[in-house]
Amino acid sequence: MGVSVFQEIVGAKGHLIDSDILTNVFDTVIACQCTYEVLEFAIGKTNDEVSQIKLRITAHNEKQLEQVIGDLMLLGCYRLEEKEVVLKTAAKDGAVPDDFYSTTNQKTAIFFKGQWLSVNNQRMDAIICLNNNSATCVKLRDIRKGDLIVCGHQGVRVTPEFKERDRFGFSFMSNDISSERRVETAAAKIAAMMQEIKAQNGKIAMVAGPVVVHTGGVPFLSKLIKLGFVQALLTGNALAVHDIENSFYGTSLGVDLEKGLPIYEGHKNHMRAINTIRNAGSIKDAVASGILKSGIMYECIKNNVPFILAGSIRDDGPLPETIMDLVKAQDQYANLLAGVNIVICLSSMLHSIAVGNMLPAWVKTVCVDINPAVVTKLADRGSSQAVGIVTDVGLFLDLLSRKLSP
Amino acid sequence: MGVSVFQEIVGAKGHLIDSDILTNVFDTVIACQCTYEVLEFAIGKTNDEVSQIKLRITAHNEKQLEQVIGDLMLLGCYRLEEKEVVLKTAAKDGAVPDDFYSTTNQKTAIFFKGQWLSVNNQRMDAIICLNNNSATCVKLRDIRKGDLIVCGHQGVRVTPEFKERDRFGFSFMSNDISSERRVETAAAKIAAMMQEIKAQNGKIAMVAGPVVVHTGGVPFLSKLIKLGFVQALLTGNALAVHDIENSFYGTSLGVDLEKGLPIYEGHKNHMRAINTIRNAGSIKDAVASGILKSGIMYECIKNNVPFILAGSIRDDGPLPETIMDLVKAQDQYANLLAGVNIVICLSSMLHSIAVGNMLPAWVKTVCVDINPAVVTKLADRGSSQAVGIVTDVGLFLDLLSRKLSP
Amino acid sequence: MGVSVFQEIVGAKGHLIDSDILTNVFDTVIACQCTYEVLEFAIGKTNDEVSQIKLRITAHNEKQLEQVIGDLMLLGCYRLEEKEVVLKTAAKDGAVPDDFYSTTNQKTAIFFKGQWLSVNNQRMDAIICLNNNSATCVKLRDIRKGDLIVCGHQGVRVTPEFKERDRFGFSFMSNDISSERRVETAAAKIAAMMQEIKAQNGKIAMVAGPVVVHTGGVPFLSKLIKLGFVQALLTGNALAVHDIENSFYGTSLGVDLEKGLPIYEGHKNHMRAINTIRNAGSIKDAVASGILKSGIMYECIKNNVPFILAGSIRDDGPLPETIMDLVKAQDQYANLLAGVNIVICLSSMLHSIAVGNMLPAWVKTVCVDINPAVVTKLADRGSSQAVGIVTDVGLFLDLLSRKLSP
Amino acid sequence: MGVSVFQEIVGAKGHLIDSDILTNVFDTVIACQCTYEVLEFAIGKTNDEVSQIKLRITAHNEKQLEQVIGDLMLLGCYRLEEKEVVLKTAAKDGAVPDDFYSTTNQKTAIFFKGQWLSVNNQRMDAIICLNNNSATCVKLRDIRKGDLIVCGHQGVRVTPEFKERDRFGFSFMSNDISSERRVETAAAKIAAMMQEIKAQNGKIAMVAGPVVVHTGGVPFLSKLIKLGFVQALLTGNALAVHDIENSFYGTSLGVDLEKGLPIYEGHKNHMRAINTIRNAGSIKDAVASGILKSGIMYECIKNNVPFILAGSIRDDGPLPETIMDLVKAQDQYANLLAGVNIVICLSSMLHSIAVGNMLPAWVKTVCVDINPAVVTKLADRGSSQAVGIVTDVGLFLDLLSRKLSP
Q1: What are the pLDDT digits (tens) for A156-179?
Q2: Residues C313 and C359 in one domain
Q3: Residue C227 sits in the same domain as residue C376
């Protein structure tokens, strides 16, 4: 008797099998120490048809039931009965009620006044705020006293991305992160995607670390910018410093990139580069006055490609354009990422994780790094969202720029 | 004849052979395409005696001569003739004359008004400012218009650290970074150093990343704090977030540390932890009000161990104590590092590099990370200054805390 | 018309959803550029019930159809119509007909004279030979002229292992190979499994490389042997050499394991160790005559734990027990692995891959290595079969032996 | 009094400072807990002049004195008094007297009948055998009863290689193994060395693993063979198997190298390739009969480049040319390496270590691998002998072959 109380019926619809969703649903129920019974299941008879399922979930107590339903919801399950979302008021700035709903990066909607309302600015680890009948992801620190906050799972629906099984344009290597792969193949596919996006006036964002400069990638990334394959550059102080050092002195952290050897006073070159730019006013001023004549930053400025240099605790200088207030830097990163079609992350775990946190699940990400552990970590962030390539980033950019050159 | 113009005689004194200094001096001359002639050499006849050398350097032109002398200076060579340091005035805030002297982390002195003046706050990549007959390392951005800046190499003398060949307390593994080593041995030596420093009321700083929490290191690092083996904690938002998440929910990034499995809504736990602390006001408030009852941050607060949480572009939240203005964060890091005897870096490349930049060459550093490339990079920063240990940081802290427990 | 010829109906039965089998089936059909239609699907209504499916596969030509059916078969699908297996005769020693069936490590049966016959000695990359109504996996080189060889897929059925979803004894970390994990948890579970296997007089095999010695693991692995937790040791010359070097001189590759420093003539110690054993006759003789008194090899011999030292191209010596003929060494490895319950691989990619190739899919494997790329590679070999742990192997063995000590 | 007994005077001569030899000499004395006194020191006044030193070493007892002298000897020090080498007779096959002299890879000579006799076939970890007034390095297992064996250090002199400071042809990156480097520079230098060696009819050996195939390196390495830049290929079964698989089916371990995706029955392709070759008789036969038409093995056979496939415990098949008896395989490796000018190791730690063990210190080695830990390990083997490059081996071979193409 009492037992029957701790039950609920949930449904799910979509490419449940292709995307492992059903497997995860069953695993989740078992992991929560609950049981399931399949009430209805209509399998998609062909690759194009969706499947549909109804499950009865049985838990041992109410808390457990609430938990398992919450977890299933993140997989795209929904309570059959549509209930209004629960809204509570933030009691102070920058904090919310204890039972707030913390977002994933998946498409989310809330059931408000009898209608499903899509959530805007989808990103993970955010709060859903309701304002003028519009729901938006807001960072915790941006909550203001009195804001209406979505709490609990009731009236929240998540629609996971489905694996695009038949479109190999992206899913070409999703399961397998290894240095023992032919990179040429992946580079060709990424080049094709970039060309397609460019043809459609889409937006390609590059996230890059100073290793791009150290490994000799400057001429290749510069060329990609010049050719119009980069619409946004998200990076930090170090990439810009070493790019400018390289432009001024031919070195990167004091190593002569032609000879491969540390050179005279090379350790000082990056400080001289910073000082020269600070004397000029800014990177932009240095380009305008003809002091800075080549490189990644130069091409960004010449080609009106917006860039953001986020500060970090290890920065020297910094350069005038570097944003040392990280609240501002995060906001500008998020703004620049709006509407992006693909993000290519080049040897910068720090900035890549930051960007990954800001993106909705449907923006594709390519992570290139020579360290397989970094690639695994980055590509793990959103399963069907990210592919990883383990290779030398300088040689990869060379390959990519050759494939994209007219 | 003309040739004889591009010559200069330099001297050096110290443990020139034991510390590879002489080798580097000769290598530098050859690498600069100059030649040397040894005029005098008095070898230290025993391990305790110093050696002394006089070299005539011949270059092909004046610029080359200036360059090679500049490079040799960094190795501890000095012009025989003592000349006054060259000072120029900064023309604007945050920038200096083009030929400014950029510091290393080695002991430096300037010859000013006929006397050698030691430079204070020694760190790398800084400017030497003279003020009231006192010379100090200043960060580029902190230069103010009108400051007196040391330029060129004239009148600057660097005294490199010597390798402490007979004191195995520190030099126990300096040349060899490999995961194929017995960690027990290194842990025992570090424990002995920490006990010695504690006995002398010295200062031990820990630099730590969130991996300390993920790998189960919280109880061990907490214990070290409680036992008085930590005088400063330099870290970021993430370590504190996951430490508090672990204290509240027993998870780290949603993984149950007892069971090793992701748990219900675990992905949300770190956001809940942040929100709880923000609701409480601050970490300190949460400890005071009994909300936060254990863990690394708790022990820091209870035992009055100062900590700094530097913000980063990838931060969630952040916690109230996190400093998102990195100019401030860097200044507070540097202040907290003043007078430190040893720095132990635990799985945080970002913060470890930041700290490495701020330290003079004579502060010993131990870098522990499971990634040998990270250890190589960190331990490279100052040759005789840093040792690296490639191991599992959670198990390492367990080992260390067992060795240091009464 | 013609189209309808290139169709076939296949079935599958089992935990199709929990184990991702159905997902893989659909993916395979699409990847082969064929289409499917679900004719029947009965979903397992609860966790214990199995599911059953019937699919119509349509291909563009006969070759494609043959291919997709062959691939589906490896996932456990079978033609609805049972047909006799095709047997052909080997025309020469050590080679087979071109269309031979190459085995996986999954449970396999053949339909012979109207009955399903289980295949013995299941392993991957083998040939199925029929002899006296008995089917066995045979290595290519062991085929003899006239042997009856299974060819094509007809009459072959594969039954994949199902993921043991509710038995967390093993599946505790299968999806996630990272150095950022608490090892304590995994060690406790492995210890529990080992105790259970020992209690049931089961068989635990250790595969180990010399890093076990370098990282100080000798006393811990020795203890596990003494306590009866090791029934077989599969390794190479190097582990034995350095174990004996360590027992004789306290060094491993010349590094003093107590002091962590290279010692006098340490580079020579492993050669001296080999020479001493060769003078004694063998490792066994050296134990018998009291020359070798401790260590891993000593405990194996004292406790009658069989070991095999497989030779490698990089070996010094070798020790008398090392088998330099690899045909023999592979055969002895395979024999020793018969009936094993669990295999624990410790820092030896070479021997671990060798062992992985020899095991059927239902023997569980634990791979411990400090390099995540190695663990990923090893744990990849059989999805639900292997778990990987990224940690310091010396500290891991310490932890494991503490948990298993009475 | 008693003290003065435990003293000895040693000398050394050469580029003692440039090559860190003197630093190591002093370190060694201190590490052995002895003391030194410099009696004479004549420094090389210019880069071309050698230095000369005489040291009095004082130990606490005779054993210690013997030890420190032995260690110093390996650094090139010699007793001032020339004494005859001590020879003892091997009492049985494959074993030697306990106090045998174990060789390093440095140039060695013995003082026999009043003359210095150079040791032939210099390699590390060998025994010096005297036969007909000729001294040769012999592997322990090849010693025969009655052979005359060099014992102790008396009458043995080692002449270490000097760092070639002014010849940047090789020393271009010796100290710095990092993935954060521009590979183009190193590739250009290696290409230049290869061209020089080829112009002089020298001998270039390639050591390669199957990763060369997986990463798409086959066309590039094939081209280098065709162009005459490879005189010897030392590898194992796996490279040949996957090279042939790639030639037959366009896959490597079942992954289609054009599409980057696993293909139909790809897992079986390497077994089919092995079987086809075994049916043909051998790789050579398959080339002769037109079955094998491209790839690394094909080019070796067509261009008469000798290759050796050493067996390993993980091998499938093996191919007919694979030598499964490792005693034979090691001997053939060593024979093929005779007279080699440079060895280029491509992604195979196992075979590279094997080759490293067989080479004298004056044969230069280049190690290319994407894993920095592997490169560090390999490049460590002989300090001034080896350079390491951390990069993607497929892209590296592409780069190298473009630089070497006419």
Answers
A1: 999 988 765 444 444 544 456 777
A2: yes
A3: yes
Considering only CB atoms, B67 lies closest to which of A265, A271, A272, namely A265
List of chains touching B (3+ CB pairs within 8 A): A, C, D
Q: Do B399 and C394 touch (CB under 8 A)?
A: no
In terms of domains, do A225 and A298 share one?
yes
Picking from D31, D264, D350, the nearest residue to C314 by CB comes out as D350
Contact C216 B183 (CB under 8 A): yes
Domain holding D147, by residue range, is 82-162
CB atoms within 10 A of CB B360: 22
Which of C162, C188, C223 is the endpoint of a domain?
A: C162
CA dist D122 → B309, D104, D125, D128, D203 (Å): 57, 8, 10, 9, 18
ipTM value for the complex: 0.93
Nearest residue of B to residue A105, measured between CA atoms: B267
- Which residues, 6 or more positions from D371, have their beta carbon under 8 angstroms from its beta carbon? A179, C371, C373, D390
Verify whether the Cβ–Cβ distance D47 to B41 is below 8 Å. no
How many domains does chain B contain in total?
A: 3
Length of chain A: 406
Nearest-CA distance A373 → chain B (Å): 9
**Rounded distance between C-alpha atoms, residue C304 and residue B9, angstroms:** 73
Residues A246 and A288 in one domain: yes
Contact between A360 and A340 under an 8 Å Cβ cutoff? The reply is no
Pair C4, C92 in one domain: no
- Cα(A14)–Cα(A33) distance, rounded to whole angstroms? 25
Sort out which chain A residues have CB atoms less than 8 A from C41's CB and list them: 41, 43
Torsion of CA D368, D374, D377, D379, to 10 degrees: 10
Q: Which residue of A has its CA nearest to D369?
A: A179
pTM: 0.93
B137-167 pLDDT per residue, tens: 999 999 999 999 999 989 999 998 876 544 4
Same domain for C363 and C316? yes
DSSP B26-77: HHHHHHTT-EEEEEEEE--SSSSS-EEEEEEEE-SSHHHHHHHHHHHHHTT-
Residues C139 and C110 in one domain: yes
Contact D376 B376 (CB under 8 A): yes
Q: What is the DSSP letter of A149?
A: E
In this structure, the strands spanning C342-346 and C251-252 are unpaired
A76 and A88 in a single domain? The answer is no
Q: Do B373 and D372 touch (CB under 8 A)?
A: yes
